[in-house]
Design the sequence.
C-alpha cells in the first residue's frame, strides 16, 4: 500500500501542468501511473467549499476528507483521498485539538482519541503584544490538519505555516506544540502508532537545506523554530523520518523549489515535506522516496510504501488489510465529504420552495381498467 503526500499549491491549478492537462477529472489524476497511490494527503488545496464539485468530492472509488479554513477563503486547506477498494478509515476528525465538531458532535465511539491536548497545560509562545492563544480552536481553524484512524495507525495530514512573516512566528510555533502534544497523547497515553505526513515548512537538518552553507548556518539550528523538527525525530527524538531512513546520506533530496528563482532546474531547494512515523511501524515500512519529476506545484510528492504482509516473531503471517480492520461494508466516518449536504442528496434545492406541491385531491382520477 502506498501513502503519498503532496503540497499541490492549489487543486484547481493542477490541471494546468502536463500530464494533468491531458486529463479531464481528478479521478484520472489519482489513478495516473506517475503518482498512483492508495492514500493521498494533499496540502494547500486553496479552494472554497462552493468550488468543490462532485469531481473533487467523489472521485471514482476514492473517499475524500477535506478541511478548509473558517476565515480566509481559498487559502490553506488539506484533503485526504482514500481508495475504498484498499482501505477505509474507522474514524476521522478535522483538526488536532478535538474542538472542531460536526453537527451533532462526534460520539465517544466516533472520536479518534479519548484524551485531547489541554491548552492550559501547554507552554505557548506569546506574540509581540504578550498575547497567548485564547483557545486551541484559534490554532486549529485554518484548515491545516486532518486525523484519520486506520486501526494499525493514526494518520495525520498537516500543513504547517511558513516562517517568512515575523508576525506569524508565534502561530507557527504554537501549532507545532499542539501537533506535538496530540502525537504525544496518541503514542504515550493511548499506545497508538502514528504516521504524520505533510508540508512541515521546516528542514530536519542542514542536509535538507539548499541555501549556501553560510546562509544555512545563519539559521542557527539550535534555536526555534529550526530545532523543533530536529528534536522531534531520531536520533534526538523518538520518531522516524521515514524517507531519510531509506536514504540516510542522500544530498539535495529537496521537495520544494522557489519558482521565482527557477530553483527546480538546478535543484536548488529545501526539503520541507515529510513522512514521519513511530517505531512500531518499522516492520511494515517497505520503501520511501520523493518524486521530483512530477510537476504541478512548487513542491513534489513524497511517498511511503507499506508491506501488504509481514512475518511476526512467532512465524505467523499478518496482512496489512487485517491490521487495518478493513471492511468494504463498514460505514464511513461522518466527516467524509460524501456526507456533505451538497453531495448526500439531502440538500433542498432552492427551486423546490417555488414549486406547488400536489395534494391527493389535486391529482387526476385514475382511469378504471376494463375487466
Sequence:
Amino acid at each position: 500500500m502506498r501513502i503519498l503526500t503532496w503540497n499541490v499549491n492549489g487543486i484547481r491549478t493542477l490541471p494546468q501542468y502536463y500530464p494533468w492537462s491531458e486529463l479531464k477529472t481528478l479521478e484520472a489524476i489519482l489513478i495516473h501511473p506517475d503518482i498512483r497511490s492508495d492514500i493521498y494527503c494533499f496540502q494547500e488545496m486553496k479552494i472554497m467549499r462552493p468550488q468543490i464539485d462532485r469531481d473533487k468530492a467523489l472521485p471514482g472509488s476514492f473517499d475524500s476528507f477535506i478541511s478548509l479554513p473558517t476565515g480566509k477563503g481559498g487559502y490553506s486547506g488539506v484533503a485526504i483521498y482514500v481508495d475504498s477498494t484498499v482501505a477505509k478509515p474507522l474514524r476521522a476528525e478535522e483538526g488536532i485539538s478535538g474542538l472542531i465538531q460536526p453537527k451533532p458532535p462526534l460520539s465517544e465511539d466516533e472520536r479518534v482519541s479519548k484524551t485531547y491536548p489541554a491548552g492550559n497545560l501547554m507552554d505557548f509562545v506569546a506574540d509581540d503584544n504578550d498575547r497567548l492563544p485564547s483557545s486551541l480552536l484559534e490554532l486549529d481553524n485554518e484548515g491545516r490538519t486532518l486525523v484519520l484512524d486506520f486501526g494499525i495507525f493514526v494518520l495525520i495530514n498537516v500543513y504547517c505555516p511558513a516562517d517568512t512573516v515575523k508576525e506569524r512566528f508565534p502561530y507557527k510555533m504554537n501549532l507545532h506544540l499542539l501537533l506535538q502534544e496530540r502525537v504525544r497523547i496518541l503514542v504515550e497515553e493511548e499506545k497508538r502508532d502514528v504516521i504524520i505526513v505533510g508540508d512541515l515548512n521546516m528542514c530536519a537538518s542542514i542536509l535538507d537545506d539548499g541555501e549556501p552553507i553560510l546562509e544555512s548556518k545563519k539559521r542557527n539550528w539550535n534555536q526555534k523554530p529550526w530545532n523543533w523538527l530536529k528534536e522531534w525525530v531520531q536520533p534526538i527524538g523518538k520518531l522516524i523520518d521515514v524517507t531519510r531512513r531509506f536514504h540516510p546520506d542522500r544530498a539535495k533530496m529537496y521537495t520544494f523549489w522557489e519558482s521565482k528563482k527557477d530553483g527546480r532546474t538546478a535543484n536548488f531547494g529545501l526539503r520541507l515535506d515529510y513522512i514521519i512515523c513511530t517505531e512500531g511501524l518499522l516492520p511494515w515500512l517497505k520503501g520511501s522516496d520523493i518524486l521530483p519529476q512530477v510537476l504541478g506545484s512548487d513542491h513534489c510528492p513524497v511517498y511511503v510504501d507499506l508491506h501488504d504482509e509481514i512475518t511476526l516473531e512467532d512465524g505467523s503471517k499478518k496482512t496489512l488489510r487485517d491490521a487495518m480492520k478493513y471492511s468494504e461494508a463498514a460505514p464511513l466516518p461522518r466527516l467524509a465529504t460524501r456526507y456533505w449536504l451538497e453531495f448526500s442528496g439531502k440538500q433542498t434545492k432552492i427551486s423546490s420552495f417555488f414549486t406547488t406541491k400536489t395534494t391527493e385531491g389535486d391529482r387526476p382520477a385514475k382511469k378504471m381498467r376494463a375487466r
